[in-house]
Each structure stands twice: as structure tokens, then as C-alpha cells.
């Protein structure tokens, strides 16, 4: 399928998702959703989707040429104020009930959409929240998306494995983060998926520690959370390594987290309840007396955003579906002492990947429901450096 056809098919699915709900058209403004539906990468763009018929893309003059090149299958409007421009177009075409993405639109932008002066004498449209229609469509990836995600993960794994030789006493967290980020770009990443986390020694007790000038010491556990972005798709991987022979408590905590992570990966199958997947891994940590030391969710979806639906946590509902990429990332964090987190990006699969070798990934058997397709492939054994 050609790229334009892929985006047209996505727009058609979005239209089907809100059709019949009394909505004449939907205004899509969240940048990741606009990219998903049109293919345009822009800091100022929106898509107008009528309940039936072709959609319209709006962007400003900075991106007009790119839009004409990359989105030839959709009508283009070049305006600075894309929200109001498309809402006005909807009114002129008789689409009076306009759904909008309340999760993206600021109060200032909503006020402009609702203001009578924005419509040259015509009455403003009736504005109704669309909900997370496009985000829900984005959860299930096509094979092209999975290949892009797999490439981002391969870059991440390769860069991390190259980095291991640089984890030496005296190196600072900040220095290591910079080395890793440069390596990912050198290997083909278009950008970082997120700010790299390097947390050593007692800093490992802070799940989202910002790399500091702390120097590594022998006896440290060092947690590295990193990811490359490739053609818009985000990788996410965490490994914890030991600098020098680990103490008994460090091995014990590491093996506990590793067991919880294996259980979480095994539970991530189509049809699994999200809360049950979280509970499977969390229960192992709680049984060892460390429930209070694992307070974040087990994982999240990944794709055009590094954190997207579904969110896997103890208070979340819903079920996993086939071809949904997620992370599984349990951790144990001991205040003032250190911590361990192990994270992989994987694809929930109803069966073995059709062409695993083509995307450079590994399939891990997890039972009759089908194997997970692991996209981050660096060993999960404790590395002693």
C-alpha cells in the first residue's frame, strides 16, 4: 500500500469511529494525530474530517510546500490560524456540529473557535468534545509502523551496547548520557525519543532522575533509560548494570525485578486485562516485601508518542489487543540506597510475527495466546562491568 493510501485509510477509519454520533465533522489538532491522519510533520497544522467525504488539511506558509509534497491526496488550506480556518470552512460547507479534541485544545483556542467574530457574520458551529477517537485508532499498529518502531529500538539497543565500554569509575552521569545520545544519532536516529536518564548509586532510587555530575563508583548500580526516535516512532528501553561485583542485596533486587519483568512480558497477550498484566508483575514484587518501592505503572503504549495508550497500571481498565506495542518496566527503588528498573518495548501478538527477521526483532514464547515480539533485544541478564 502506498503512503498516501495508508493515510487515506486511516482517515476513513476515523470517520467510521465518529459517524452516527450526531457530528457533522471533526477537527483534529493534536500534532501526533494530525501526522497519523495526513503524514504531515508540522508544529502548526490541523485536519478537518467530515462525517463523509474527503478531509481537509490546514497549515501555515512555513509548511505549505512540505504539505503539498507529502500529502498530495488531501485538500490543503494555507492559513496561520489553522483551527479557526477549518472551523470557518466547516460552517461554510454546512457542517454545523463540529467535534474537537478537548485534550489538545487550550482554553484560548477554544474561545476563538466559539467566538462569533471568527465567522464573518455566520453563527459559530456547535462544538462538542470528540474524545480520544484517533488515539484509540493509533493503539493498534500496522506492520509498516511496527517496522519503524523496530528500527528505533534496534538503534537504541545497538547504541546502549556500544556504550557499555564507557561505563567506568569517574565518568559522570551527564557525560554518559551525552555519549549515548550522540551514539543514537550517529546510528540513524532522527532525534531522541525523550531525555536520557542515567541514575547511579543512590540516584537510582529516583525513577526519573535527571543526569547529574555525580561520578560513578565501584559498587554502583547504574540505571540507563533511553530511546531513539526514527521517522516519528519512539523506542523506550531501560537497563540496570553493576559497576564492579554487586553486593548480595543488589543481586537479590535485580533478580526480583527481572522475574517481575519476565512475568509481565508473558502476561502481555491479546485479550489480557490491562490491570491483570500489571498485577502479575506487581504481585511478585509485593510478595517479596517491596510493594511500597514500586509505585509507578507497569508500562505504556509507544508509537508516534513515547507515552500513549494503553497505559498499564493497577488502576487502569481495558484489554490488550493484537499488534499493540507496549513497554513492560517494573522497578524497585530504595530511597537513599539505589534501585533497579528493566524495561523492554514489545508488540503484543496473536501469533508469531509474519517476518521477524525483516525487522530485526525476537519472538519470545509466552503461551498459547501467542508470543510477544520483543523489539529491544539487549540482554536482560545483570551485566557486571
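Q: What amino acid sequence fits the structure above?
A:
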Amino acid at each position: 500500500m502506498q503512503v498516501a493510501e495508508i493515510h487515506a485509510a486511516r482517515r476513513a477509519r476515523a470517520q467510521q469511529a465518529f459517524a452516527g454520533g450526531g457530528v457533522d465533522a471533526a477537527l483534529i489538532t493534536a500534532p501526533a494525530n494530525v501526522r497519523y491522519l495526513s503524514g504531515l510533520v508540522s508544529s502548526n497544522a490541523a485536519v478537518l474530517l467530515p462525517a463523509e467525504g474527503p478531509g481537509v488539511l490546514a497549515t501555515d506558509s512555513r509548511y505549505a510546500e512540505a504539505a503539498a509534497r507529502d500529502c498530495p491526496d488531501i485538500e490543503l488550506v494555507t492559513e496561520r490560524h489553522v483551527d479557526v480556518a477549518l472551523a470557518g470552512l466547516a460552517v461554510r460547507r454546512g457542517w454545523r456540529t463540529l467535534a474537537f479534541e478537548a485534550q489538545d485544545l487550550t482554553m484560548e483556542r477554544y474561545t476563538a473557535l466559539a467566538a462569533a467574530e471568527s465567522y464573518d457574520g455566520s453563527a459559530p458551529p456547535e462544538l462538542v468534545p470528540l474524545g480520544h477517537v484517533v488515539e484509540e485508532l493509533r493503539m493498534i499498529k500496522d506492520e509498516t509502523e511496527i517496522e519503524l518502531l523496530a528500527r528505533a529500538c534496534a538503534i537504541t539497543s545497538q547504541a546502549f551496547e556500544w556504550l557499555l565500554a564507557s561505563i567506568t569509575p569517574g565518568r559522570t552521569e551527564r557525560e554518559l548520557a551525552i555519549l549515548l545520545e550522540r551514539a543514537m544519532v550517529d546510528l540513524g536516529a532522527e532525534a531522541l525519543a525523550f531525555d536520557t536518564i542515567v541514575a547511579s548509586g543512590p540516584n537510582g532510587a529516583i525513577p526519573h532522575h535527571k543526569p547529574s555530575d555525580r561520578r560513578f563508583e565501584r559498587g554502583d548500580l547504574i540505571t540507563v533509560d533511553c530511546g531513539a526516535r526514527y521517522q516519528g516512532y519512539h523506542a523506550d528501553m531501560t537497563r540496570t548494570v553493576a559497576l564492579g561485583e554487586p553486593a548480595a542485596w543488589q543481586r537479590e533486587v535485580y533478580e526480583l525485578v527481572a522475574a517481575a519483568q519476565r512475568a509481565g512480558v508473558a502476561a502481555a497477550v491479546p485479550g489480557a486485562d490491562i490491570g491483570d498484566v500489571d498485577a502479575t508483575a506487581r504481585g511478585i514484587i509485593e510478595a517479596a516485601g517491596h510493594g511500597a518501592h514500586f509505585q509507578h505503572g507497569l508500562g505504556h503504549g509507544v508509537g508516534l508518542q513515547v507515552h500513549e495508550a494503553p497505559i498499564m497500571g493497577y488502576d487502569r481498565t481495558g484489554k490488550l489487543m493484537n499488534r499493540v506495542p507496549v513497554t513492560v518496566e517494573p522497578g524497585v527503588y530504595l530511597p537513599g540506597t539505589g534501585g533497579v528498573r528493566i524495561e523492554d518495548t514489545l508488540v503484543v501478538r496473536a501469533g508469531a510475527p509474519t517476518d521477524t527477521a525483516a525487522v530485526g526483532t525476537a519472538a519470545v514464547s509466552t503461551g498459547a495466546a501467542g508470543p510477544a515480539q520483543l523489539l529491544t533485544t539487549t540482554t536482560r541478564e545483570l551485566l557486571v562491568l
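Q: And what stands out in the fold?
A: Residues 352-360, 364-369 have pLDDT under 50 and may be disordered.
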